[in-house]
Amino acid sequence: MKVPFSKPTTATCDGVTRRHALRVGASGLIGGLSLPWLLEMQAKAATPKAAKAKSCIFIFLEGGPSQLDMWDLKPDAPAEVRGPYKPISTSVPGTFIGEHLPLCAKIANKYTIVRSHTHNDNGHATGYHYVMTGYKADFADGNTRIPNNHLFPSIGSIVSRELGPKTSLPPYINMPHHMAGGGAGFYGSEHALFVIESDPVQADFEVQDLGPLEKLSLSRQERRRKLLTEVEKLEKEGVEQGRAKAMSTYYQRARDLMTSAEAKKAFDIRSEPESVRKAYGYTALGQCALLSRRMVEAGCRFVGIDHSGWDHHFTIFPSLEKDMLPHVDRAYSALINDLEQRGLLESTLVVMMGEMGRTPVINAQAGRDHWSMAQSILFAGGGVKPGQIIGATDKKAAAPTVDPVSVEDVLCSVFGQLGIDTKKTYYTPLGRPVPIVDGGKVIPGLV
Questions:
Q1: Would the pTM count as exceeding 0.85?
Q2: CATH (residue range 55-203+262-426)
């Protein structure tokens, strides 16, 4: 009754032989028992691994941050490769990073740089889908649908399903908008993300739709809730029922948050001392990073921050110097220091990456193009060994020369620190087996 969903070696397109099909079909002879239901129960009964981390903050630099200008400089390479930036020393002897990341240089002993992340999907939408789910996209790059992972669940939804809510806060939150590859896939609305689309930099920032309805008494709100429940009961079987069930989940979440003093307190970023807010920087990334600390402090399991603007095909260096690098430098260093000072760093895994890196050679428009074959990723907290450099790239930062790290390896490492069994398999509504991660391993030396 076991049908592995690993790389298929059979002739059929879904990797299931006729014998397997007969084996699956026979399970239906048992009254009320289906194979997907049985194996999901087995998966849930599996003994979880000890977790080093209780939460994860996932900072996604959308567009592709340049490894050559940030974490993996090549000062001896030709000018058209190395660019104008010089390496600077850090708090870890022998470790150097880009000159426009001085605050990160001071805390290099608190994070680890993986310089050898590599994969072969050079598209924005498809690459985003791949790194967030561990599965290749079934659509062409350029797809603008959000979320774009209609089948495979994202890392945040997997965390939501495996760990569940810890408090009244949703277990999975995104900000400042929906992450393109961050949907729940076939897991459904129960494990979808809660999106904070308001700008935390603004003085009037508040999480939309969580305030009480004006001029509507509590008794009237309760009557509306009961009426909605009765209407939902009348929905027929089929698509309508599925949509109604999904909407019911969203309504319940909204009601829970509207009545939760704990949630309102967590979202109240204006209660932070001015010195703390300045330390993070009054930028979208800075204030989202601060809000993410408040979220995990209040019990959120997974916070995804989507920071766009890293797709530099033209005049890359003015943009990096003026906006991107100072914002990352201040926000990331403040987040790590703040988590450490509050005793949260050891229980909070912080990951910062994009869907790809940038080309080794500067193009004719003074930019760098897409390059998925080499990227640097930062890991901190959550049981990660700090102050390390893992992996290495060639003289142009074009490809790993030591310890290549795959997308699946990254996911295995994140889930492993959160105590999630990556070999667990769930089944789509059509009975298709989908393991949490299809292959991969924990990055050697990371934890």
A1: no
A2: 3.40.720.10
